[in-house]
Specification:
The chain has ten helices and 13 strands. It is α/β, with parallel strands linked by helices.
Length: 296
């Protein structure tokens, strides 16, 4: 009798233990399931926070424009935008790509060049954001000082309408030539009124100017091509446009779209980021005065 009672007690205890074990396993499984669900919910919330809004396709010059855009890319990604940057090494194709609709926008030029391009090519491009200014500078070729300018020296300048005028105006500001009084922003070599040193102005495509540094006395360079050639405005320029000059306001580099696309949401988001304090700080730290954020 005692044996039977003991056996019954042990059997009951084992049964309770078994059920307790099953209950524990169910609770663990339930907890694991709840945790997984919570993680999925959190991940879903995070994914929703950066849900893709689309792709912004932009054409740009390599330096500094594409570099600045690369700095803007992660900031835009946090807002759900994928920035796709295509680099061009000339001043024509980026505008043609926007005009054709291949690109949403471009970032490489200033307004006088844009206006001139529209007039000459019949394009319909408009500025939607003023971003930075690049001081134009005179850089050493075979000579390292403007004090050494001499009879017959050759000076290389960009040959496109607005940049050539800007180069000639800078040469005038430094006493090398004198232009006709009404030449202004459309000045060409034909507007040189006085040339005391009989310097020869060699007109080249903007991207070619830095490549003839061993062949000419001086170069007059756009800021981005000066950077690409390894020049520092602060350390290498023999003379340059000042940040408080009229040129800073006139030649600010802009984001451009085709007329009718001014309200493109992606481009508006891009312009906001390019005007942000983060990008201004990036520009100031990176370019040693060769690129200056535009202040409204």
């Amino acid at each position: 009798m005692k044996k039977r009672l003991l056996t019954g007690i042990l059997a009951g205890a084992l049964a309770v233990s078994a059920f307790a074990g099953c209950g524990s396993a169910k609770e663990e499984n339930s907890t694991a399931t709840d945790n997984a669900a919570a993680k999925e919910e959190t991940a879903g919330t995070e994914a929703a926070a950066v849900e893709s809004k689309g792709t912004i396709k932009i054409a740009a010059s390599a330096t500094p424009h594409a570099e600045i855009l690369e700095a803007a890319k992660p900031i835009l990604a946090e807002e759900g935008w994928d920035l796709e940057v295509t680099v061009y090494d000339d001043y024509v194709l980026p505008n043609e790509a926007v005009e054709s609709g291949e690109m949403d926008a471009n970032y490489f030029q200033h307004v006088p060049y844009l206006d001139s391009f529209n007039e000459e090519r019949g394009t319909h491009l408009v500025e939607v954001g003023k971003i930075h200014y690049e001081p134009f500078g005179i850089y050493p070729g075979t000579k390292s000082s403007l004090d050494d300018v001499a009879e017959g020296d050759v000076i290389a300048v960009p040959n496109d309408t607005t940049n050539e005028a800007r180069a000639l105006l800078l040469l005038q500001d430094n006493g090398i030539i004198t232009l006709k009084a009404d030449a202004g922003l459309e000045a060409t070599v034909n507007d040189i009124e006085e040339n005391p040193y009989n310097v020869q102005i060699e007109e080249l495509a903007a991207e070619q100017v830095a490549r003839v540094s061993d062949e000419v006395a001086y170069l007059v360079l756009n800021g981005n091509y000066a950077l690409e050639a390894g020049y520092s405005v602060g350390q290498d320029a023999l003379a340059y446009e000042k940040s408080d000059s009229e040129a800073a306001k006139t030649y600010v580099n802009v984001v451009v779209v085709k007329e009718g696309n001014e309200d493109n949401e992606g481009v508006k988001a891009l312009v906001d980021v390019l005007k942000s304090d983060e990008i201004k700080e990036f520009i100031n730290k990176t370019y040693d005065g060769a690129v200056i954020p535009f202040e409204e």
